Amino acid sequence: MNSVDTITLEVADPTAAERFYTTAFGLDTQLRLRAAQEPSSGFLGFVLSLTVAQPADVNALVNAALDAGATSLKPATKSLWGYGAVVQAPDGTIWKVATSAKKDTRPASRQIDDVVLLLGVADVAASKQFYLSRGLTVAKSFGRMYVEFAPGSGAVKLALYRRRALAKDVGVSPDGTGSHRIALGGATEPCTDPDGFAWETSAVPAVS
Questions:
Q1: Residue 187 class from Cβ within 10 Å (0-12 exposed, 13-18 middle, 19+ buried)?
Q2: What architecture does CATH give domain 6-201?
């Protein structure tokens, strides 16, 4: 294990979810979908983040998501770190769209620079050690607050955030129970991290 190659979202209606993600974000190889009815409620413990080049690109993706049926959790706004917004897809997945740029330098596009999976964890240090022991390397680390791993050859960046801090960042309650409704794919034997996030061998296709 040294990267996240794919993300599989477990949804009630894979056909509807595929339609949404194609229309809203144009995601294909990074995202898989499969039918699942595992019970869960509240915050699922993770956020998917799309990093783009400029504010106009944030607006383009967020507007496309809202038009496709997403719900706004945080409207697009400027901050000290840049510009961003948070939406919730019809299947319940929370998406953050953000840029560190504060001004537009070209016409708007829906090009995505990076896909980042933010896991909300109980103990950042413990989860960090779990992933280090399995071959990932740290790109950024801010004590027990935030850790970002180098993406390696994977299509998705992985980062760890304290669960309550992550929930606060996207504007939801940190409370939640049941299935995370997500699986991470990589060159690894199946395993589960300290917070219950499951890893699968990415060579095994998702079943819709």
A1: middle
A2: Roll (3.10)
